[in-house]
Amino acid sequence: MTKAFLRAENIVSGYGKLHVINGANIHIDEREMVTVIGPNGSGKSTLIKTLIGLVKIFDGRVTIRDEERGWLDVQTRKRQMKPDEIIREGIPLGYVPQLNNVFPSLTIEENLKMGLFVKKWDSYYHERSEQIFESFPILRERINQRASLLSGGERQMLALARALMPAPKLLILDEPTAALAPNLAEEMLQLIVSLKNTAGISILLVEQRAKRSLELSDRGYVLVTGMIAAKGPAKELLSEDKIRKLYLGDRAKKEKEVG
Ligand SMILES: Nc1ncnc2c1ncn2[C@@H]1O[C@H](COP(=O)(O)OP(=O)(O)O)[C@@H](O)[C@H]1O
Ligand SMILES: [Mg+2]
Q1: Distance 172 CA to ligand 2 centre (A)
Q2: How far is the CA of 11 from the centre of ligand 2 (A)?
Q3: pTM for the whole thing?
Q4: CATH class in words for 4-258
C-alpha cells in the first residue's frame, strides 16, 4: 500500500482578509502523480502556494511525512514554514511557479544555484547539476548564458531543473505547459511522468491541459471557488460525464455530435 507524503486538512487560506480557499482537503501519496484542475481563478495556485507557506493559512494544517520523525506540521496558523525552511529541515521539495519562474538576468548556472537556496550548499551544486544535465543537456551547453536568452520552452525546462536541484521527494508544478506549443507541452508532461517513474518523485500538478494531464495522472481533484468539487482516481474523473462537460472541454464536441 502507498503511504501519504503530504496531507492538507481543512485548509482555509488567502490574501489579507480575503478567503480564497474555503476548507480544502488534499493529499499526495509517495510516488503518486496528482493533478488539480478547475476554472481560472478557482484558487489552484493559491492552494498549492498554501502548502508550501507562500500564502497565509487562516485555518487547517499541512503535514509532511518524514521517515524518522513521523508527521511534521509545516503549515498551521501558528507557524508557517517557507519552502527553503522545509528543505533545510531535510524534506526536499521542488516548486515551479506559474509565471516568471526563472531569473532572466541571471545565468543558467546562477538560476540552478538559486534552487538550493543556501550558499553553503555550493559543493552539493556540482553533484546535483551533473545529474540534472543528463535530463537537460541543453542547460549544460548554455550554462553561462543569461536565462533571458532562452526560448519559452527552455525557460520552462530551466525552472523545472532548478526545482529538481534539492533532489525533491515532492515536485509541485503550477501550469508548467501554459506557455508551450502543443508538442513541447506533451514533451514536458512526459518528462514529468518520467520523473515519477524513474526517480520515484511524487508530483502535484496544476494544469490547464486538464484532460491530458489526468490521462497521465493517478488521481485528480477539481477545485471550484476554493472548494474541492470532485476527486478520485484520474480514470474515474475522466469518465464522468459531468466533469467532462464542465471541466474537460467536452461541451463543444458534445453539441456538435447532437446537432
Ligand atoms: N496576491 C493576491 N492578492 C489578492 N488576491 C489574489 C492574489 N493572488 C490571487 N488572488 C485571487 O485569488 C483568487 C484565486 O486565484 P488563483 O489561486 O490564482 O486561481 P487559479 O490559479 O485557479 O487561476 C482569484 O480571485 C484571484 O484574484
Ligand atoms: Mg493559477
Answers
A1: 13
A2: 17
A3: 0.91
A4: alpha beta
